Amino acid sequence: MSARYGIVPADAPTGADYPVWVIHDHSTDRLVKALPPRPEPLRFYSYDQAERWVRANEQPEVA
């Protein structure tokens, strides 16, 4: 089984002292957008929050 989403570090703004995480969609090879069709990716300032988003949005494979 392969996961659809991956959590990757974002390019943090200059001077930021906190990690920023974005969600990579492996099926489209793009970042998940915050509010389509806007170009900004969905950002998380906690890895735990990003994991919760992935768990909530990951669809089980259909056999």
Structure overview:
The protein is of the alpha+beta class and 63 residues long. It has 1 helix and 4 strands; from the N terminus they run ββββα. Strands 1, 2, 3 and 4 form a 4-stranded antiparallel β-sheet that branches.
Provide a quick synopsis of the model:
With 63 residues, the chain is α+β, with helices and mostly antiparallel strands. It is built from one helix and four strands.
Number of helices: 1
Number of strands: 4
Radius of gyration: 13 Å
* Largest β-sheet summary: 4 strands, antiparallel
Instruction: Kindly state the percentage of residues in helix.
Output: 10-25%
- The backbone outline, from C-alpha atoms, is globular
How would you describe this structure in keywords?
four-stranded antiparallel beta sheet
Give the secondary structure arrangement, pairings included.
Layout: E1 5-9, E2 21-25, E3 30-31, E4 43-44, H1 47-57
Antiparallel strand pairs: 1-2, 2-3, 2-4
